[in-house]
């Protein structure tokens, strides 16, 4: 897996990317840890527009094939790292892994000669939090205390491990170290060169170079530092543990358990007890807030977690830890991010049937329109050429042929039985009541005695009609029966002209 070309002291810039393009988070805490992380960038990216709900400050860049986010958080306290990482995952939706990289206090083996290289822990070495040996965990929270209902408390020491992808990358890098294929020493030299003369951190040396083995002193656990303000040069040299000298200055890599908690550890009895019971190889205070995220803790040893701790080794230890983290990224496969804006799925073009050729009608008169048309499934525009319009009284440019409406049969009238014989009606005689006698004038209007009242004229009633005076009427059911008018005198009978 090749790396892009990089010139020490010069970081190539890239165009501004997107929040979705970054997959690796890098969490330093101290200022020297942030400076060491930035020195490992192969390319530095432009800043992104700030997220209103994210108070973190980010340095963006690229290491190998990974786009990396280095976070700086202004919030202080034991939950500062957890708060910062939570905001980082919110702002960068494709974040995959978090590297917690910085300095830590070592927990060397209690006796010499050491039985393994893990016990021979020196300043400047790097501890990687992965399961090792009979320890199937990588991080232990050593000061997690549970309060019981009876007023007592107990330390539970919950344990965590990195995701399998990061553990596999660490194991693969271990093979590179065994075959001298690691790039870590080169990365250390590049980091030291980039930071040379640029460090102005109070209380720290202005250089990240290796301090020298004569500055690496491990005192007996029973020997306490006389005064916190006095340097270790005033400590009794007879209390220094004589260890086998190392001929090279390159740091060693240790795989094992990292202890994390809320307190700065500088008590040798507490350090040695956790080394023996939990297998803790170093202590730090940041990973406890990140264990709920897919993370890997990497620590450069800058002291021995005792009363003799100082900051003299911090610059070099920070660069060594950052160089190892970059080496892990070299062997870690990159995450392919699907770009929804650039991935275009080409859809197959719709199948459009070829249009049928128009039906040309030879029209010579409007009567041709009533001719039988060909069976056309859909209405189509029929075009008539100009020569064919000469015999048409009114010019027509086109004829829209519509399908004939369906023939709906008219409902048949109800069947009426044929009248075999004419119907006969009887005309009843008119009954007229008898006329009333004349009314005297006095009964009508007594006020006019001399007036003469003339009753209305009532014709005399005719005598009742006898049976022979009846009129026989005949009607016919159909017009065909009445077509022969010669039969009508035979069917009608009158007597004495009464009708």
TrEMBL record:
<dbReference type="InterPro" id="IPR053137">
    <property type="entry name" value="NLR-like"/>
</dbReference>
<dbReference type="GO" id="GO:0009116">
    <property type="term" value="P:nucleoside metabolic process"/>
</dbReference>
<dbReference type="GO" id="GO:0003824">
    <property type="term" value="F:catalytic activity"/>
</dbReference>
<protein>
    <recommendedName>
        <fullName>Nucleoside phosphorylase domain-containing protein</fullName>
    </recommendedName>
</protein>
<dbReference type="InterPro" id="IPR035994">
    <property type="entry name" value="Nucleoside_phosphorylase_sf"/>
</dbReference>
């Amino acid at each position: 897996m090749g790396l892009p070309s990089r010139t020490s002291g010069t970081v190539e810039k890239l165009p501004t990317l997107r929040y979705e393009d970054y997959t690796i988070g890098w969490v330093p805490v101290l200022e020297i840890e942030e400076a060491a992380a930035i020195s490992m960038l192969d390319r530095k990216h432009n800043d992104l527009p700030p997220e209103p709900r994210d108070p973190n400050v980010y340095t963006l860049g690229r290491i190998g094939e990974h786009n990396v986010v280095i976070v700086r958080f202004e919030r202080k306290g034991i939950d500062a790292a957890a708060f910062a990482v939570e905001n980082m995952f919110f702002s960068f939706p494709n974040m995959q892994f978090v590297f917690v990289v910085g300095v830590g206090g070592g927990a060397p083996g209690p006796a010499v000669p050491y039985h393994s290289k893990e016990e021979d822990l020196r300043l400047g070495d790097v501890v990687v939090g992965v399961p090792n040996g009979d320890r199937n965990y990588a991080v232990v929270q050593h000061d997690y205390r549970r309060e019981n209902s009876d007023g007592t408390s107990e330390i539970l020491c919950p344990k965590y491990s990195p995701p399998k992808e990061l553990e596999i990358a660490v194991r693969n890098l271990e093979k590179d170290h065994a075959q001298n294929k690691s790039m870590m020493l080169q990365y250390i030299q590049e980091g030291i060169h980039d930071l040379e003369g640029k460090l102005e951190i109070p209380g720290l040396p202005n250089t990240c170079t290796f301090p020298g083995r004569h500055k690496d002193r491990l005192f007996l656990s029973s020997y306490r530092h006389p005064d916190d303000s006095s340097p270790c040069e005033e400590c009794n040299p007879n209390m220094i543990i004589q260890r086998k000298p190392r001929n090279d200055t390159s740091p060693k890599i240790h795989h094992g358990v990292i202890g994390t908690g809320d307190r700065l550890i500088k008590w040798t009895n507490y350090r040695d007890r956790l080394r023996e019971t939990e297998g803790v190889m170093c202590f730090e205070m940041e990973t406890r807030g990140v264990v709920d995220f897919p993370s890997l803790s990497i620590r450069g040893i800058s002291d021995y977690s005792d009363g003799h701790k100082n900051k003299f080794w911090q610059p070099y230890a920070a660069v060594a830890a950052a160089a190892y983290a970059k080496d892990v990224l070299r062997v870690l496969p990159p995450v392919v991010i699907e770009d929804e804006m650039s991935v275009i799925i080409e859809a197959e073009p719709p199948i459009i049937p070829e249009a049928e050729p128009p039906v040309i009608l030879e029209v010579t008169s409007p009567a041709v329109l009533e001719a039988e048309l060909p069976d056309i499934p859909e209405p189509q525009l029929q075009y008539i050429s100009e020569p064919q319009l000469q015999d048409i009284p009114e010019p027509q440019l086109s004829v829209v042929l519509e399908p004939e409406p369906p023939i709906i049969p008219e409902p048949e009238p109800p069947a009426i039985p044929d009248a075999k014989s004419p119907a006969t009606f009887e005309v009843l005689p008119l009954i007229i009541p008898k006329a009333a006698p004349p009314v005297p004038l006095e009964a009508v209007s007594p006020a006019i005695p001399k007036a003469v009242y003339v009753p209305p004229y009532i014709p005399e009633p005719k005598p009742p009609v006898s049976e022979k005076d009846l009129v026989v009427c005949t009607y016919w059911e159909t017009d065909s029966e009445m077509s022969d008018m010669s039969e009508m005198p035979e069917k009608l009978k009158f007597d004495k002209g009464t009708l």
